Amino acid sequence: QAQPVESGGGLVQAEGSLRLSCVAPGRFFNAVAMAWFRQPPGKEREFVAAIHWSATKTYYSDSVKGRFAISRDNAKNTLYLQMNNLKPEDTAVYYCAALRGPVLRVPSVQDVDQDSWGQGTQVTVSQ
User: Fold this and answer.
1) Per DSSP, what are the bridge partners of residue 59?
2) 8-19 pLDDT, tens digit each
3) Rounded to an integer, what distance in angstroms lies between the CA atom of residue 86 and that of residue 76?
4) Cα separation of 66 and 85, whole Å?
5) Band of residue 109 on the pLDDT scale cut at 50, 70, 90
């Protein structure tokens, strides 16, 4: 496996829940932090959430704070994103990625190890 592989996306009604998973090779998963990004239709890729390698620190965009929860299982090289109370504006392709350094501010795509992008998983939230 050369790249992270995301799964768990699908079609869900508003206020529903989904849990995304990402299995990543060790060379990415052992980065100081892993993150979820998403790309809504016709828009730029944006930060969603990040988690420190030790899982002691987590970070969220304002748009998902209180609804999404990021977690990780280091024994399985797996990153998770629990998404609750989903809204139509959460519709996007979701990607996991390794960050190139510690989270000092809201991460952008420039903070990502560009080799660590996977294919993404589609999340569609209907009214």
Assistant:
1) 50
2) 999 999 999 999
3) 27
4) 9
5) very high
Strand partners for 33:
52
Residue 35: which of 126, 127, 113, 91 has the closest Cα?
Answer: 113
Q: What is the number of residues in the chain?
A: 127
Q: Is the separation of the CB atoms in 111 and 37 below 8 Å? A: no
Tokens of 7: 């799964």
Spatial CA neighbour of 99 closest among 62, 63, 59, 65: 59
102 phi and psi, to 5 degrees? -65, 160
As a whole number, mean pLDDT of residues 113-117 equals 94
44 CB neighbour count, 10 Å cutoff: 9
Outline where DSSP puts E strands in 53-99: 58-60, 68-73, 78-83, 92-98
Question: Which residue carries 């996306």 as its tokens?
Answer: 9
Distance of CA 66 to the CA centre of its chain: 15
Q: By percentage, how much of the chain surpasses pLDDT 70?
A: 99
Cβ(93)–Cβ(39) below 8 Å: yes
